[in-house]
Amino acid sequence: MRSSNLLPTLLSVVAVANNVSAFSSVESPKSKMPMFEYLKFDKKPQFDVLAKTKEYVQSQKVGNMSEDWYADDYVLRGPVIGPISRKDLRDNQQGLGFVAAFPDIKIDTFGYTIDPENPYRCFYFQRWRATHIEDMNVAGTVYPASGKEMETPVATFCAVWNPEGKLVYEQVGAVVDRLEGNTQGKAAVFGLLHTGGLTSISASPGDKVFNFIQKIGHFMNSGRSWSKEEDIPKWWISPSRGAEGTEQW
Fold first, then answer.
1. Rounded mean pLDDT of the chain?
2. Which of 51, 124, 146, 196 has minimal CB crowding within 10 Å?
3. CB-based burial of residue 42 (10 Å sphere; 0-12 exposed, 13-18 middle, 19+ buried)?
């Protein structure tokens, strides 16, 4: 190919490179909810956020739940659970004996992707399948094994890391399509409870009855659906608790 023919091609490559550079340098929009703007930190993680999230999710599968993963100001929030600290979450998990009723549980995780507006935030999807093989014990009430197979709808999860590489925020179990599966739109742990026979539990934000039940549970000291106010980190400014509705910003 003659050098004169190469010139237009080279110029085109340079133009594309300049456009890509200009696009990547554009500031992402400021989050309307201040808490999510805070979670962007310096926007320059010095580690592979996607790879770290995959490693973290894999550690959950093999039961290696080291506390080294978590920041001191860690918070977990689900559609009707949270904000909850790591300590309270750990205490609650010790009482989740009902999971043993589903010994063949299989969690398919896929679709890892970085939030284009926050490089510290990684989204992923999960679909849970299991069979109610053993009796399910929930707070002393036993639900006999039914042999029923469970398939939850796909749900989204996200992990936000701080600049030190510690997990500071997790969002869990937000259902993508409530019509999928056979748990009446309930994902993750709530799908297990539904399949085991506890069908009256709602997993919907804004359910005032379920939120009242959560508050009774706190009063009876039977586990926490969200942490005490003094145990919630200062960066968490959302006033919504448990199944309460979402506030307007």
1. 87
2. 51
3. exposed
| Confidence at 72, pLDDT banded by 50, 70, 90 | very high
In 10 A of CB 173, how many CB atoms? 22
3-state secondary structure of 143: strand
Looking only at the bridges linking them, the beta strands covering 167-175 and 70-77 are parallel
The answer for 223, left when phi > 0, alpha when psi is -120 to 50, beta otherwise, is: left
Query: What's the pLDDT at 126?
Result: 97
Which tokens in the block code for residue 188?
């993750």
Q: How far apart are CA 81 and CA 75, in angstroms?
A: 11
Identify which of 45, 81, 83, 53 has the alpha carbon closest to the alpha carbon of residue 69.
Answer: 53
- Name the band, by pLDDT with cuts 50, 70 and 90, for residue 63: low
- The separation between CA 216 and the C-alpha centre of its own chain, rounded to angstroms, equals 25
